[in-house]
């Protein structure tokens, strides 16, 4: 929450919020304010935000934070926090669904979109999967199509506040359409790959695809 951090993103935040407001307006009508048909099967809504992880909370400062994006890409990069913040800002509001059956509506995320990162690193035609590695040793995997969905981002703010350490700050992945275990907290490496590589929970019986709407919980 240092002023340098917030100062460097303020203008882009306003622009991104305007974009988001436009998207919200376009979705009016399709957006179900009554929350009917908003809760995937077997889920219940919570108002708080539970913490779920392996029990290790890495404390990664903004100064230390670095993200390596590599593998099947034409332009591998290692981004510092300042370099991440120089990329166009992305703002999106989405629901989250945890496989342990809680869902939390209306999460306002701010960060950099997956599509923006792909524009930067340029995945090769051979890239089919995206693998995440985090500071606590956690790993998870998605298809490149799932990663490049229009609501996926690397988030550094939630509800206008920097993401706390326990929720994966300073930067976590957010993939709203999949169960939350696919959204790596404390992300440090993103690898584009020809082949799939099931992550921490995927090798322990969780479903590889993780779609909440068809209850792809366990394999
Ligand atoms: N690095 C890391 N990311 C992680 C996990 C983890 O243990 N380590 N747990 C996953 C699981 S199982 C869930 S449900 C969500 C929980 O995110 P939250 O604690 O912010 O609610 O983080 C996901 N991302
Ligand atoms: Mo989870």
TrEMBL record:
The name under which this protein is listed is Molybdopterin-binding protein
Extract the InterPro entries matched here.
OxRdtase_Mopterin-bd_dom (IPR000572), OxRdtase_Mopterin-bd_sf (IPR036374)
Pfam families according to UniProt? Oxidored_molyb
Q: Which residues form the Oxidoreductase molybdopterin-binding domain?
A: 57-201
Q: Which residues cross the membrane?
A: none
